[in-house]
Amino acid sequence: MFYEIKKGHGLPHNPFQSYIVPRPIGWISTLSADGVPNLAPFSFFNGALSHPPMVVFTSSAPAEGGRKTKDTLVNIEETGEFVTNMATEALAEEMNLTSAYVGPEVDEFDLANLDTLPSILVKPPRVAASPIHMECEYFKTVELPGSPDGGRAALVVGTVLGIHIADEVLTDGRIDLGKVRPIGRLGYMDYTVVDTIFPMPRPKPVGGD
Ligand SMILES: Cc1cc2nc3c(=O)[nH]c(=O)nc-3n(C[C@H](O)[C@H](O)[C@H](O)COP(=O)(O)O)c2cc1C
User: Fold this and answer.
1) In angstroms, what is the span from residue 143 Cα to ligand 1's centroid?
2) Hey, whose CA ends up nearest to atom 26 of ligand 1?
3) Residue among 43, 69, 98 whose CB has most ligand 1 atoms within 8 A, to mutate
4) Domains of the chain, first to last
5) Rounded to whole angstroms, how far apart are CA atoms 207 and 203?
């Protein structure tokens, strides 16, 4: 089949998110300007640059309840800081709980019964049970086309200032993803787990002097 986006796919569910898979989950913790902790998953999330390390994610509204923007976006723009917490198979249920539509006064760490750890370079707390965290500084927002009712969609770019890696997931100086077991987002309501890992060296350069 082929479908033109503006004419629609005619399928029971939108297939778009089954094509860009698996998507890493940026499980993002922030603080509101008033100091209320916030935690939410974002799967339009990725690394954007290695040197310096930078990350991107997209926040899009309308969210549930007719909100025009999301707390994570508001908090990052107001405070300039966020933390990404690795979402793992062991934390899948908790991650999902933190996606609940709740007001900015609700602390999703409490909602999902998650302990926190302080960060070192930024103020938002970390998910204690998560084995890898990145402390980030807000870089900029790129506005994207929002929804017809005025909901805001925006790509947030952040610079990674520091990375925590739990000693128990390091094997011979490498992050052992077989131990971490990150989860990735697929289409529909589906997820996957990183549990098959194979190496493949890059091709050697050919030609030239
Ligand atoms: C696995 C998963 C991935 C999600 N990815 C996104 C995303 O990329 N962008 C987005 O706007 N919402 C995404 N959501 C929904 C948000 O997590 C949800 O709207 C949440 O309530 C936002 O919280 P906040 O208002 O505290 O920022 C995702 C939800 C789940 C469960």
Assistant:
1) 17
2) 71
3) 43
4) 20-193 (2.30.110.10)
5) 12
- Taking the whole predicted model, whether its pTM rises above 0.90 is answered as yes
Q: Which atom from ligand 1 is nearest to the alpha carbon of 64?
A: 19
Which pLDDT score, from 0 to 100, does residue 11 have? 97
> Which of 16, 56, 70 should be mutated for ligand 1, with most atoms under 8 A from CB?
70
pLDDT by 10-residue block (mean), the chain, 209 residues? 97 95 98 98 98 98 78 98 98 98 95 98 98 98 90 97 98 97 98 96 84
DSSP one-letter code for 204: P
Question: 203 alpha carbon to ligand 1 midpoint, in Å?
Answer: 38
Partners of 153 in beta bridges: 60, 144
Residue linked to tokens 């991650």: 95
C-alpha distance from residue 141 to each of 57, 59, 151, 157 (Å): 10, 10, 15, 6
